[in-house]
Fold:
Amino acid sequence: MSEIVINIKNSEITYPIEIKNEPVSDLYNKIINVINGENYLVVISEKVEKLYGKELNFPKSNKFILKDGEKEKNFNNYQKIINKALELKLTRKSSIITVGGGVCGDLSGFVASTYMRGINFIQVPTTLLACVDSSVGGKTAIDTNFGKNMVGTFYQPKCVFINPNFLKTLDERQFKSGLGEVVKYSFIEKSCRCDVEYNLMNFLSEKFNEINQRDEKTLAKLIEICVNLKKSVVEKDEKEADLRRILNFGHTYGHAVEKINNYKKYTHGEAVVEGMRFAFNLALKLNKIDKNYKFFAEDVIKKFNFPILPQYKSEKMIDIMKSDKKAEKNCINFVLPTDYSVVDIFEITENILTD
Ligand SMILES: NC(=O)c1ccc[n+]([C@@H]2O[C@H](COP(=O)([O-])OP(=O)(O)OC[C@H]3O[C@@H](n4cnc5c(N)ncnc54)[C@H](O)[C@@H]3O)[C@@H](O)[C@H]2O)c1
Structure:
C-alpha cells in the first residue's frame, strides 16, 4: 500500500490518496469511517454498479446510478443528482462519493462543489484514466453544446481511494484509453518539476508486458508514479495559472476531436493520443524538436497500438480549438514537446496551423 498526500500550497488544502490492492468489499467500511456517521450520496457508474454493486454494499436509497458515456456529463444529470441530494436531505456536513471513471468523477465533483456551496467529496476511481489522472487535482466539469468541460470548478476531494483491483474488469479499449494519459505523463515528466526522477518512459518500456497483462503490483506502481507527477504540478499551481497548463499536452487538439464527433465516437484517451501526434508534428514543423525525437515518440505511441484517427478538416478544428477555454485573443495555446520528456506552452496563430 502507498499513501500520497497532496498539499496545495496557496489554499492550505491537504488530502490523502491511498493506492491499495485489496478486496473491493473493504471499501465500504473505509468510506463509512471517513464520513463519520453523516449522511451521504454515492454516484456510481452503471457498469460499475452491475459489476461491484453488491460487494460495495451501499444501500440502494443512497445511490444515484449514472448511465455510461461522455454524453452523460451534462446539465441534465447535474440537476438530477442535485435533486437526489436534496431528497436525501444532505447537509453541509454530508458527503458525495463517486465510484466510477472520469465522467462520473468530474460530474459528481461538480455537484459536490456547488451543493450548499460545497460539501465533502470522496473519489473512488475505477478506470485506469481516473486512477492516474482525473481523480487527482480537483478539476470538476460538465460538457455543453459549446464544448467540453465548459462549466466546472476547482474543488479538491477529501480523500481518494485507488484500488487497482477494479481495473481487472475494464475492457481493452478503456484500459488503453487510460494508457493514453499515462504515455502523456512520460512525455511531460521533466516539466512536472517533481523532486523524484521516475523515468516513466523507461518504466513503460521495461514493464510493457506486465502493464498489458495488468499485473496488480505493476499497475499500482504505474499509478503511484503518475499521481506523484500530477501532485508535483497541482501543488505548485492548483488553478492552472501557469505550470498546470502542461497537463493539457495533447488536449487542445484532443478535445476538438471529441467535440467534432459529438463525444460519442472516441474515448478521451484516444483523442488525447491523437492530440499528442498532432503536437509532435507541429513541434517538428516549428523546429522545436528534431526528427529523431519525433520518430522516437511515434514508436512509443505505436508500441501501445493506439488507434489512428481520421484527419479532420483544419478550418473546422481551428474553429473548435479557438472556442476552447484555454484559447486567448487570436491565438491557440498549444503544449508542445521541446526535448525528451520536456514540454512548453506556445501561442500559435491560425496561419501556422493552416500553412
Ligand atoms: N478532472 C480531470 O482532471 C480530468 C483529467 C482527465 C480526464 N478527465 C475526464 O475524464 C473523462 C474520461 O474518463 P474515463 O476514461 O474514466 O471514462 P468513463 O468515465 O467514461 O469510463 C469509461 C467506461 O468504463 C466503464 N468502467 C468504469 N470502471 C470500470 C471497471 N472497473 N470495469 C469495467 N468497466 C468500467 C464505465 O462505466 C464507462 O463505460 C472525460 O470526461 C475527461 O474529460 C478529467
